[in-house]
Amino acid sequence: MATIKDGIYFIGIPYTDNVLDVKGNSKEKGTEIISYKKHRGDNQRWNICLDKDKRYRITGVSSKMVMETKGAKTKDSGTMVEIGDDNDEKNQQWDIKQKNNHYTFVNKNGLNLYIDNNNVIGHKKNKTEFTLISDERCRFVVTSDTHFATKEKEQRDNENETKIDDFVKAIESLSPHFFSICGDLNNSTQGGAGKYSEKYWLDNLIKCVEDKDIPVFEGWGNHDVWLKNFSTNIPKYIEGRNKDRKKSKQYNFVYSDDDIYKYNGYNYKKDKNRDEAKVKKNIKCPYHYKWQMPVGDRTVHFFVLNNVPGYGEIPSDPDKYKNKNNTLEIYERDPKNSLRFLEIELNKMNENDFFILFFHMNFSAEDRWWTDTSKSQLKKVLVNAKAKYITSFFGHVHDSVSQEEQLSDSDFYGFICRCEDDPRGMLHFNIVDLSIVNDKDGDVLECKITPKDVKENEDPVNKISLLPHNGIKKGKYDSVTLRFLLNGEQLDSKTNQ
């Protein structure tokens, strides 16, 4: 018997455009199942799960009823295949056998699934070899600028605890595949210890979310590297988390702990007179990382590039950007080769893949934070990628409305995550839903972005501010759906207002 991962599938008929379909999208018990042209409707989507008896239950997503041969004890060839109430009968329990990339289905009564002139019947001898097409959908929650801090310790202590509790409950209710934070995890106002440390609250949030079986993928921002002066080294913290993530062997996780990475175009392996100290400091930077998830029959890759994408440039006029001690803290602006990591990983991907970026600095950040040179280099990397760019999420700017921004007069756009300025953080987030649908344009990958408040207010903001492109007028909307043909061509977006 094949081992099929529990999940949502289309059950396809090889060498045709047809799949198994509940006739007329009916939800009535006894409705027949037929072979019909694939349109990705819920009546063609099947939840296949292994039961306690090591047989599979096949449940229609639309009808919520199980696939069965008509009659609990019938063993006659030609018996109609239909949907019915789940009664744990033999005619509803299926073995799935795999041969190469094709699958056959036989129930406990010994009847095989067989296609006869677009009718689906049970047959003792004849059987059809089907394909299983994953219809995974991906939902994630993204926020930024949580700004845990220790200022006014006792007050902040109570505030953090309440915020975390409310935030985790809101996220859990949405059942996301993962949760991402785009930097400025901590506020770095003081260097408290123990329960008053910034790291205490960050650990608390991550543990509470991951205890709900929701992975957390975090990156640092400029406030986080300031903490090198205090109690928490966030880059080291993320490095440790990356090692743990790698050990878990989930999501095809990859991080930048590899000596193939170049520093600002410098290939140290070819330099016989290389400075080993420079290599150690600048080449090995185990902070940036990626993972991937299936969406239908496509793969979406997700990249955390921490503070800013770049090869290592500092502001063009660094003397303008001294801190209060009249010194330039390069590390708060150093990209740590994040763009090189992105470049290398994109080169491994193909034209069928899609990707999304997470980092901290917004596209319109001034030169102090993200140089124009680095922005141009990111643009070049995105233009040269074979895989298809969907969007980016970032923070830094605090606004209760999620804002769309454009990267340096290009065709690449991204979104600032929502963050109230006072009190900071953990009041809002964006819900992102990725799926493949079939509409008048054909098979389309959709990325729907919906702003959400942690607590529903009487007058919720819950808006996303869009720029005029891809068929959208400039304005504020309830949500936006980015749309791409599977070849990567971007279509007009859709909005709710």
- Total domains: 2
Helices, by number, come to: 7
- Radius of gyration (Å): 26 Å
Instruction: Give the low-confidence spans.
Output: 190-195, 259-266, 325-329
User: Overall mean pLDDT score?
Assistant: 83
CATH topology of the largest domain, by name, is Purple Acid Phosphatase, chain A, domain 2
Q: Report the count of strand segments.
A: 28
Please bin the fraction of helical residues. 10-25%
Architecture overview:
This protein is an alpha+beta fold and 497 residues long. The protein folds into two domains: 7-134, Trefoil (Acidic Fibroblast Growth Factor, subunit A); 138-496, 4-Layer Sandwich (Purple Acid Phosphatase, chain A, domain 2), CATH 3.60.21. The protein has helices at 153-172, 198-210, 222-226, 234-248, 276-282, 338-347, 372-384; strands at residues 7-12, 18-22, 33-37, 46-50, 56-60, 66-69, 79-84, 94-99, 102-107, 112-116, 119-123, 131-134, 138-143, 178-182, 216-219, 254-255, 289-295, 298-304, 354-358, 388-394, 402-406, 413-416, 428-439, 442-453, 464-466, 475-477, 479-485, 490-496. Strand 27 (479-485) and strand 28 (490-496) form a beta hairpin. The longest helix is centred in the N-terminal third of the chain and has 20 residues, at 153-172. The two termini are 50 Å apart.
